[in-house]
Amino acid sequence: MKKNNCFSVLMSGIIKENPVLVLILGTCPTLATTTNVFGAFGMGIATLAVLICSNVLISLLRKVIPDNVRIPCYIVIIAGFVTVVQMLVQAFLPELYEMLGVYLALIVVNCIILGRAEMFASKNSVGLSALDGLGMGIGFTLALCAIATVREVLGAASFAGIAIPFLEDYKIEFFVKAPGGMVVFGLMIALVSLITLGKAPKKKEFSCASCPGSEHCHIKSCSDGKEEA
Fold it and tell me: Hey, how many other C-beta atoms are within 10 angstroms of the C-beta on 229?
């Protein structure tokens, strides 16, 4: 593997193809688990672990799994790793397990994981697949933590469950509710788009030059809509 290619695959999921803020995937756990930074970080790490493990195993088995049953096979593999992660969290981090609730088990149907299995792991080497899972997992975790930080600080006057006394009188509970989550999510997407693009996309200008019927058209210019006298 070339170093430049490896770095590109790793960084792609963090910035250029961030699963939450660019590809807009995994919206359900994003909105549900970002009311607290601790819960958001836990969800991110759990998803990262499943992403790496499932990507590696699917890449190893990509030439063995029949094409006509690949999706069910991917889901079984992902479900196996999710079950392991769920049991480990329940055993060693019961508070996080209670906080995430059903959303921990629903990692199985997270479209980010199945999407990377289908689009990347099934077509690339084990090393690149592991890096792809790591990059996507880090990008997912960073996005969740960023959204959770804004929501928890503004909505609960705390950070990772630690109270921020001077904000107590100014907290806006709207941000820890579903509508507030949508607002913060949308603003984050807009901010990332602005940073990534650098500037707003140029407005396309239309003219008759490329129109095959321009010679027979009575409209002088498609851009200004003026008709010939």
Answer: 4
Taking the whole predicted model, whether its pTM rises above 0.85 is answered as no
Only one residue has tokens 């590809």, namely: 23
Tens-digit pLDDT profile for the chain (229 aa)? 666 788 899 898 998 899 999 999 999 999 999 999 999 999 999 999 999 999 999 999 999 999 999 999 999 999 999 999 999 999 999 999 999 999 999 999 899 999 999 999 999 999 999 999 999 999 999 999 999 999 999 999 999 989 999 999 999 999 999 999 999 999 999 999 888 776 544 555 555 655 545 554 555 544 444 444 4
Exposed/middle/buried for residue 129 (C-beta within 10 Å: 0-12, 13-18, 19+): buried
Is 218 strand, coil or helix? coil
Tokens of 21: 């803020």
Contact criterion met (CB below 8 Å) for 122 and 132: no
Token readout for 167 is 């904000």
> Cα dist. 23→19, 60, 166 in Å?
5, 26, 37
Q: How far apart are CA 157 and CA 170, in angstroms?
A: 8
Rounded to whole angstroms, the Cα distance separating 28 from 48 reads: 16
Q: Write out the two tokens for 53.
A: 């493990």
Asked if 128 and 12 touch (Cβ cutoff 8 Å), the reply is no
